[in-house]
Design brief:
about 500 residues, mainly alpha, Rossmann fold, Arc Repressor Mutant, subunit A, two-stranded parallel sheet, elongated, binds glutamic acid
Length: about 500
């Protein structure tokens, strides 16, 4: 086992965004590539933002994609517990160490006092209030108050938070694998709270403590955490710990214009930005799985949002991705979420699947009930006919509607254009051929109908489009004769009747 230990550390505040899945995926790929360990850690220190069901959703999504953690809540591992709320006791000693070494301090400010200074600053035109060295000296904390007063307040035990003491006039520099050297001026940083009044650590503290205790070698996470990394780098220094290597992933951008891909955008344009459907009371979001995507196709699509193997290669199995993955091929600039591309990938994946696999997927989809009315032999043939004409799984049933029942609608425009009354005698003759065909295979039907057309010196273009629309309603269907064989004689004759009755009305 190599020393590569990576973690995906979501906060269970709602459904996992597709960007989070990409973060998990890159962590997973690096772990598998290096023979390392992929860890799931649930960062649930903020109880106010905790959402019931979010952790299960995260696990279900990772499992659907086949990017299972090696360690995590419910997955075992020697570095647990893997939920931060269950590690509460562990953090206190590190907070104390930082206070004792003078790198953190107790603050006694009440919410009201904080709002008051915020307001005052706003009035002075300062809209980005920061609790920094300057503010620190004016507020009530163990750096500004006399020792006796601090001791008294500590003994009282009310409303005590711990803040990080950011040094003044320092440039904090760390190396990011994606961005190279990154620097922040310490005077721009705020004295972040690391322990809240209820004794719960904040994200920042719990995050570095756990990365240290869990022996994380690489922190791979979204770009939005880049600025926090300055605080984290300082905390590693304060604790005398070696920091892991950092890699901050580029944003996933909205398909139109800039900005981070948002759930609002998904809802507006009708595409999923979540892996699985989420029914959260008033908030319901569509998911890739329920919308009929193949998990492997989505993984392939996501892998390329911010990474490429160094050439134009697009179709890759998970094994190939593992083989080709490297952090130095992650790009810096934001990656546009292109839903059509996601559908293209899905189409390619569906085409490469066996009919039997597709049937298994359909049987556990929302179309399961419909499918149960047909036997497997019929379904496998229907799938074979439709396979190259779908981009998501439900298309088998919706685009292939006419394989299961009478066409829901007809391409009247083409019917009108192509139907010639003088050919009716030929259609009647073809009807006769069909009715008397005992085999009713694609081969025998095609042989008979094609010979009839040639023998009577007709053009295929005068006959086939009419047959096709009469049977399926559309010009876009699969092979006409294969379709007839599948539908069966009885149904073909019913459709024939309905279709020609329609022609009489419109032609
Ligand atoms: N809990 C953070 C999140 O929800 C994790 C950030 C990190 O990976 O450090 O994204």
């Amino acid at each position: 086992m190599s020393n590569t230990r990576v973690r995906f550390a979501p906060s269970p505040t709602g459904p996992l965004h597709i960007g989070g899945v990409r973060t998990a995926l890159y962590n997973y790929l690096l772990a598998k590539k290096t023979g390392g360990t992929f860890i799931l850690r649930i960062e649930d220190t903020d109880q106010n933002r905790y959402v019931e069901g979010a952790e299960d959703y995260i696990k279900e999504a990772l499992e659907w994609f086949g990017i299972q953690p090696d360690e995590g809540p419910g997955y075992g591992g020697a570095h647990g517990p893997y939920r931060q709320s269950e590690r509460k006791e562990m953090y206190a000693q590190y907070v104390k160490e930082m206070v004792d070494s003078g790198n953190a301090y107790y603050a006694f400010d009440t919410e009201e006092e904080l709002s008051k200074v915020r307001e005052e600053e706003k009035e002075k035109g300062n809209h980005s209030f920061k609790y920094n060295w300057e503010v620190r000296s004016k507020m009530r904390n163990s750096t500004s108050l006399p020792k006796e007063e601090t001791d008294r307040l500590l003994a009282e035990g009310n409303n005590i938070t711990v803040r990080l003491k950011i040094p003044q006039n320092e440039t904090i520099t760390f190396t990011d694998i994606v961005r190279g050297e990154v620097s922040f001026e310490s005077n721009e940083l705020d004295d972040k709270v690391i322990m809240k009044a209820d004794g719960m650590p904040t994200y920042h503290l719990a995050n570095i403590v756990d990365d240290h205790l869990m022996e994380i070698s690489h922190v791979i996470r979204g770009e939005e955490w880049l600025s926090s990394t300055a605080h984290h780098a300082l905390m590693y220094r304060f604790m005398g710990w070696t920091a892991p290597q950092f890699a901050h992933l580029p944003l996933i951008l909205n398909p139109t214009g800039g900005g981070k891909l948002s759930k609002r955008h998904g809802a507006k344009f009708g595409f999923p930005v979540f892996p699985l459907q989420w029914d959260g009371g008033e908030e319901t979001f569509q998911g890739f799985r329920e919308d009929g995507f193949d998990a492997d196709a989505v993984v392939n699509f996501l892998a390329l949002l911010g990474w490429n193997p160094g050439d134009d290669k697009e179709m890759m199995s998970k094994e190939e991705m593992i083989e080709l993955f490297s952090l130095d091929k992650i790009v810096k600039s934001g990656a546009k979420f292109d839903f059509d591309k996601a559908k293209w990938f899905n189409q390619q994946y569906i085409m490469s699947k066996s009919e039997a696999d597709i049937l298994t997927t359909l049987k556990s989809s929302k179309d399961a009930e419909k499918i149960s009315q047909y036997d497997d032999t019929f379904m496998l043939k229907a799938i074979q006919l439709m396979k190259e004409r779908v981009s998501v799984y439900p298309d088998f049933i919706s685009n292939g509607q006419y394989l299961f029942s009478l066409p829901a609608e007809y391409d009247n425009k083409t019917l009108k254009k192509k139907y010639k009354a003088e050919n009716q005698v030929h259609f009647d003759a073809i009807h006769e051929l069909i009715s008397s065909d005992e085999d009713f295979t694609a081969e025998s039907l095609s042989g008979k109908i094609k010979s009839y057309i040639t023998d009577n010196e007709l053009s295929f273009g005068a006959i086939f489009p009419i047959l096709r629309i009469v049977l399926s309603g559309t010009m876009k269907g699969p092979d006409l004769f294969a379709m007839m064989e599948l539908i069966g004689k009885e149904d073909v004759l019913i459709r024939w009747k309905a279709g020609f009755a329609l022609i009489e009305n419109i032609a």
